[in-house]
Amino acid sequence: MANLIRSAKYGSDWTLHDLKSQNISLNEIDCLTFFGLKELPQPSVDPELLANVKADTMEEDDHVLLMYYLNDAMIPDEKESGVLNFIFHLFTTIGYSAPGRIPRLQSNYPLFICHTKKTATIDACIRDVPQNSIHLIVKIEKRLDESDRENAQARLVAEAVAAFHHNNSIREKNGFPPLEEAVMPGIVMVVTAPVFFKIPVTNTLSTHNRHGTYPPEETRVNYCYPPVPRPDLLRREGMKPLDNRRVIFQCYEAFKAVIVPNLPVTTQWIDVDGCRVECAVPDAYSRAGTGAISEPLHFLSSFLGFLSFLPRTPEMGPNPNGRCLVG
């Protein structure tokens, strides 16, 4: 493998060969093992989305729009643009986007490979607005054949390397040390069916990629498919059938726990309404000092919106001290 030919490529041109040349393996694992759970959580979406197949039987305008986007995404001739529109609306529906955390489509980021600066085009991502950092990447699988499935996975990995470099560059500009390693959450979207990825990226891997050399340590990328009732038809059925839709919404809910640790935080003690509270504060705000974060937590959490899908009420201990995660 160390003798494989390496060349400077755009992220959109990566194939399985490029993964092998960087000692990166793709490993499909069981869904519950992937999420580290005994069972999938219940979906947090409105029950109307779980009980109605068609848009014309729904009452909420946002739900009607989501179904329109879902149907549009499944039109073969307009697959890519339709899927992008669907992703944007879906991420709002499931709580992946919020104030301070928004979806971004078709973004280019530097990809340094073989002493050459190329770019990786991320089809969709979740971007932290105050920090301008990336916390989830999405690659659209443009066709349904086997070769495109493998290439889409390889290109998602290329985008993870580019996102890791981008996040570290932002950290250094803001006066923070670069991360030595991070797990980038990723999704390959097959029309409306997601495949979930955990992509570990290290400075060592990034350096070998930059210089076109072979990393001695293997990088294992784990991924899983939603455990839908008809797995052989997942790529074509997507989220249209209600039984598929429920399982996929459950997987999106479980994936939130993978995305959350990607937000860099600093621990601080602050006074809130006379109580001493230990808070994990996003780095972009910790530099402003405790005065910038000493407003009531529920107001700050709503304003930042970083972790809007987690409980926002701090647990007060008997001291009365407590711990919470601001955002």
Number of helices: 11
Structure classification: alpha/beta
Strand content: 25-35%
User: Main sheet: which strands, in order across?
Assistant: 1-7-6-5-4-3-2
Low-confidence stretches: 263-268, 280-327
Helix content: 25-40%
Distance separating the two termini: 44 Å
Mean pLDDT: 79
Large-scale geometry:
globular
What composes the largest sheet?
A: 7 strands, mixed
* H and E string: HEHHHHEEEHEEHEHHEEHHEE
> What's the Cα radius of gyration?
21 Å
E-strand count: 11
Question: What does the model show?
Answer:
The protein has helices at 16-21, 31-35, 48-51, 61-73, 79-93, 146-173, 203-211, 234-237, 242-259, 283-286, 297-304, and strands at residues 24-28, 101-113, 116-128, 133-141, 181-190, 193-202, 219-224, 265-272, 275-282, 315-316, 321-325. The chain is an alpha/beta fold and 327 residues long. Strand 2 and strand 3 (116-128) form a beta hairpin. Residues 263-268 and 280-327 have low confidence and may be disordered.
Main traits of this protein?
11 helices; 11 strands; four-stranded mixed sheet; seven-stranded mixed sheet
Short description:
With 327 residues, this protein is α/β, with parallel strands linked by helices.
Write the layout of secondary structure elements.
Blueprint: H1 16-21, E1 24-28, H2 31-35, H3 48-51, H4 61-73, H5 79-93, E2 101-113, E3 116-128, E4 133-141, H6 146-173, E5 181-190, E6 193-202, H7 203-211, E7 219-224, H8 234-237, H9 242-259, E8 265-272, E9 275-282, H10 283-286, H11 297-304, E10 315-316, E11 321-325
